[in-house]
Specification:
Blueprint (H helix, E strand, L loop, with lengths): L1 E5 L5 E6 H9 L8 E4 L5 E3 L39
Antiparallel strand pairs: 1-2, 1-3, 3-4
Length: about 80
């Protein structure tokens, strides 16, 4: 797949392959907010919407019930001396 890069000056550069775009990210020549135009369809999109170039961050795993056991963040406080005051 190839894309044209819409520069800050309004000019289009390319076409560029995904590998080229990835290299430009590393070189800080392309940001997640850079506009691209699909070379085949002409569709405009933002570079940050392409997971091939900007992978989505991993989603935090939900805590398992075992992780919330006694002493976990949702456990009630322990009574002092074994009895509730």
């Amino acid at each position: 797949m190839q894309y044209m890069v819409v520069g800050a000056d309004g000019n289009e550069y390319g076409p560029a392959t995904l590998d080229t775009l990835k290299a430009w990210v590393v070189e800080n020549r392309l940001t997640a907010g850079t506009q691209l135009r699909d070379y085949q369809t002409g569709q405009l999109l933002v570079a940050g919407t392409l997971p091939e170039i900007f992978p989505l961050p991993p989603v935090a795993a939900e805590a398992s019930p075992a992780a919330l056991a006694v002493g976990g963040p949702s456990a009630p406080p322990s009574p002092v001396g074994g009895q509730w005051s």
